[in-house]
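Hi,

I'm pasting everything inline rather than attaching a file, because the server keeps stripping attachments. The sequence lines come first, and each chain or strand is labelled.
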Amino acid sequence: MKNSQQSVGVIGLGIMGSAMSANLVKAGFEVRGYDIVAARRAALRRAGGNPVRSVAQVNAGIVITSLPSAQALHDVSQELKRKCIVVETSTLPIEDKEKARDVLKRKGITLLDCPLSGTGAQARVKDLVVYASGDRKACDQAKEVFPGFSRAHYYVGAFGNGSRMKFVANLMVAIHNVSAAEAFVLGMKAGLRPEQIYEVAGDGAGTSRMFQVRGPQMVRGRYGDATMKVEVWQKDMKVIGEFAARLGVPTPLFNASAAVYNAAMAQGFAKDDTASVCAVLERMAGLRR
Amino acid sequence: MKNSQQSVGVIGLGIMGSAMSANLVKAGFEVRGYDIVAARRAALRRAGGNPVRSVAQVNAGIVITSLPSAQALHDVSQELKRKCIVVETSTLPIEDKEKARDVLKRKGITLLDCPLSGTGAQARVKDLVVYASGDRKACDQAKEVFPGFSRAHYYVGAFGNGSRMKFVANLMVAIHNVSAAEAFVLGMKAGLRPEQIYEVAGDGAGTSRMFQVRGPQMVRGRYGDATMKVEVWQKDMKVIGEFAARLGVPTPLFNASAAVYNAAMAQGFAKDDTASVCAVLERMAGLRR
Amino acid sequence: MKNSQQSVGVIGLGIMGSAMSANLVKAGFEVRGYDIVAARRAALRRAGGNPVRSVAQVNAGIVITSLPSAQALHDVSQELKRKCIVVETSTLPIEDKEKARDVLKRKGITLLDCPLSGTGAQARVKDLVVYASGDRKACDQAKEVFPGFSRAHYYVGAFGNGSRMKFVANLMVAIHNVSAAEAFVLGMKAGLRPEQIYEVAGDGAGTSRMFQVRGPQMVRGRYGDATMKVEVWQKDMKVIGEFAARLGVPTPLFNASAAVYNAAMAQGFAKDDTASVCAVLERMAGLRR
Amino acid sequence: MKNSQQSVGVIGLGIMGSAMSANLVKAGFEVRGYDIVAARRAALRRAGGNPVRSVAQVNAGIVITSLPSAQALHDVSQELKRKCIVVETSTLPIEDKEKARDVLKRKGITLLDCPLSGTGAQARVKDLVVYASGDRKACDQAKEVFPGFSRAHYYVGAFGNGSRMKFVANLMVAIHNVSAAEAFVLGMKAGLRPEQIYEVAGDGAGTSRMFQVRGPQMVRGRYGDATMKVEVWQKDMKVIGEFAARLGVPTPLFNASAAVYNAAMAQGFAKDDTASVCAVLERMAGLRR
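And the predicted assembly:
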């Protein structure tokens, strides 16, 4: 039997949770995982982990949560019983995370707010960054497991700062994805080839991580293989928009990008990658490839 | 006496021209340079080059032009006499470059449209990229001198494509500079430290070359040491805006950024770095550091 | 004792509710009103109405609700017992109104969705327009009381259409208020006097109801006498923004206006009139009057 | 023979110039008109005016110019010889008008900057407003003819203020036309009928002159009968945009609208009315009527 330091719990085995679990297994951890979907629990077993039948059975000193909604977090908070440190990695409103933290605290469980920077594709190759926040001591303990599923982690301070940093980063993601599309459409309409735009503009002052990551889809004009679906991204847009409004921060470029994502939803790209904003702008520009 | 392959002319010895000249000298070229300002000619001599007294005296097979305005280009076009290849590196409307090309063609001089990606600071350390366009054969000849002042060059096709690619790249520069400012202001107002934002958000999906390059100024909140002044940048904004309007390309984010640069001009940042848009957004957000 | 046609209930006696009540009294109705705040009930008595001590005691065939939040509507829905037609005039998410409608239906009470176009100042002079929607027959009955507090009413169809029309109208209100500010700031910076701008531009193709209504505050540069406070307006902005996002409608101008309202909040104008966006843009433009 | 007070010259007999001439004739003036196009001179004769064969032959104390470009104004300035007061009604950059003023001054001719508010359709029914600026005494003389072609006029001060006021008014025209389109598209996508939106939202706080004027085209979804073509309007957009940039005035809503007009150009609406931005937003919103 392995000792408790080598065990780690994972609740929520979707795209992110399953990828993290697989990497934790490879890194030598015993992964005790749970998901409400049986097929996902089975997938965990195939990946070398140990699925359990309920949240309450996830018995480990450190438990990672990767959840689709605030409601899921509140449900998990009710069901957790054993003392542990919970590494909450989902992107959710801070208020919901605070509420969960308070519920768990009464049971002696410490919730840490630790959103991740990176897509599902990046999670599979361990190209994730953890924005860890909350109780410092608990974070120090939790960071033993971070290298098992991420390439870097930063401690960013008080509980909620992880989410705040995530919103800041995602504000730029929202903008840079659309700015890449503007650049491709402007260039293509001016007669430049998209491959050339990707190669040349990607090697200069105008480049961004999003230009590099989403650019290949824009070059091909195919968005079906989504690493971030527009309909999922809309939730992030809403969370960031409300965060900025509540703080009284004007975000003119972010707001301008929101109109383009709405159009992507309207034009049938809900299940496609967010890179499909390029198709939206092409249509606006009357561009036929 | 050196042979003609080893000589290169440079017309316009401002921030960019002088930096390129100095690097060409270091790379072993004999630089024959001209500028209307005597002090700049003297500086060229100190840097190891050979200043001449007029455009007509710039005797070299390949001549680089780095000019502040369309008028300067038209003046130089009138004064050039000897056959050569002119590598025109300035950012100007394509129509003006075409006009100069036609004037020079009648004298047997080939003008190439070769804008540069990179700031004055980057020029000094040879961190420039050349977007070469125009006559292919002439470009092949000219590219012998490119490594003398740049780290990379791309041939992007017919005359004008260099400028088109530059506008595409600069559209993203315009946007990403403001998006970096939005991110810093949102984060700071949420209580995050700017140093932390720079470190953490710079290592993730939201980063951009501009975030990395201009971020340190935004962290300090000091914009006096300009690598690109707002008032100079306004010319680029105008050129790109008209380019997009003429092509019928909607550029919502670029347009949103233009309002912020106008505000920077209005608030006294004309001589400061474009990173000062961060101060503009801070004021809008009622943020006091 | 008066007959039921002459009585009308009013729940919520804030700025809008008290103004409507006063006008209904003047129009000859017996107003039976309730508000959780005792002072407002007393004010109703002074205005000639009959305050009651609870929602359940508001005994009338037609009951108008004018409420500050969705929660207030849900509370009222629980407390109402007697059969009646409820004319719901608040601006709230449609989902909340639908929920209330369903709760009331089980008690034989018909809820109509009837938002108002007009501010508190307009309500006092009966310059309101009712966007009536829901059960047609109930609307026909309710419209007997509309002339008692409004200058016009429109039946716009199925339940919820009243709110939809209100969101459409308010989207333009949001934009035109900021466009008036842009116009004043552009004109003033160009040396025109604000009084002149108001007079001349108000008599031409560029004018709007908002320019006419909010313009005098922008001319004076004083926003303390609010007919619509920025902090209250922010709720409308949120509701409209989510409405558009859910429908997949790109609203680039509305989104651009949202950034300016956020700035107004940040700069201390929360309690001021929304016309204070003029002060926000003046600051951005470095304008000193 | 009529005396000089009753004569008025008109140079430029396009849509605006011919409408003004016809109304001046009806008002009892002898109109001496010139246009480079012979057919337009013939039309003036049919309308009861007296066409002449050159600019120099336009012999009148007050001469109205209605010209398509700055170049046309400069040409006319060269050709005018006799002393007179020129009422310049075109929308052109102020710099060009100043240049013309200076050229004419040397010949004893006083140029007034007097742009008009109103479309060609409005010009036909005399629904124009004159923004008069320049020499006060000359304006007082010129205003004798204003009632012959306009419904109102305002003296707005020093030369150029007429244009400044026009830019301010047109900034709002640009925005309100697009805001009307946003409102129609939001409403239609929510299931409201466009006729209803026009009727109901047009009678409330959200309305604007543009909503009222362009709304009927948006209701029908037909834009072929242009009172202001998109391609012509693009020139106004450029002039206003540069005016704001030079003054350092941030105009976020105007900038957002510019992207939509660019899209209209791109989608083939160049010759259609500017109301066609509604079709652009419908396409973005995936709306099929």
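The interface with chain B takes residues 189, 252, 256, 262-263, 266-268, 280, 283-287 of chain C (CB under 8 Å).

If the labels don't parse on your end, tell me and I'll reformat.
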